[in-house]
């Protein structure tokens, strides 16, 4: 008798699992994948259908399972992204700029990849948070939980940003001007502020202040003189770096075109 009861319970469990996967998670997972991989061929269901499925799924008692599967899907995406960013640092890149080593070129390539992935991830998080809003509301009300958007952005910091932030900031600090496009840097630092909830801006305030408005605390009159001195020092540093870049470029040009150098000397 006990064996029959156990078999019946197991059968019900398998049936519930099959129902959850078929009716809820598979179509919802397609939507999550479409947000995380906007260029993929995955066909997501509509916002209304997604919201309805999430509502029914929570109502059927699958809220914890749905939340767990959602976090797992996003975490899997971030781990794959982590590997891709690491590959940028290890793959040899042609040394087109004499002042940079191969490692520096790899970091710059990684920064471009990081910037693009971060911008796409922020868009994906907004979409996921909106379509899964009922799940987020359930956890916020019933379990005193943080919002889905907060949880997903924190996940990016833990899985991605914390592993690459020091390489990124170090490269930005020591690179000559315009090594990285100003628009890219502005977008990158702004988005880092978003996912870290201003934490990185607080920890690295001086560097962030170069690209993000209001990264530094509000200035008082007593701070003006020191601020002016910092601006002058920054301008002087940029001029020195620009002069070094010009000298390096002139030297490399003379090495590549010795005939041009001789003709220039003859004219003189």
UniProtKB/TrEMBL annotation:
Picking any one GO molecular function of the record gives: protein kinase binding
User: For bias kind Polar residues, which ranges apply?
Assistant: 247-256
Q: Where is this region: Disordered?
A: 247-268
Specify the superkingdom: Eukaryota
Query: Which Gene3D superfamilies does its entry note?
Result: Cullin Repeats (1.20.1310.10)
- InterPro entries registered for this protein in UniProt: CACUL1 (IPR042652), Cullin_N (IPR001373), Cullin_repeat-like_dom_sf (IPR016159)
A GO BP term here is: G1/S transition of mitotic cell cycle
Domain named Cullin N-terminal is located at: 25-230
Its family remark reads: Belongs to the cullin family.
Q: Which PANTHER family match?
A: CDK2-ASSOCIATED AND CULLIN DOMAIN-CONTAINING PROTEIN 1
> Which protein, by its recorded name, is this?
CDK2-associated and cullin domain-containing protein 1
- Native source organism of the sequence: Frankliniella fusca
Instruction: Supply the source organism's classification.
Output: Eukaryota, Metazoa, Ecdysozoa, Arthropoda, Hexapoda
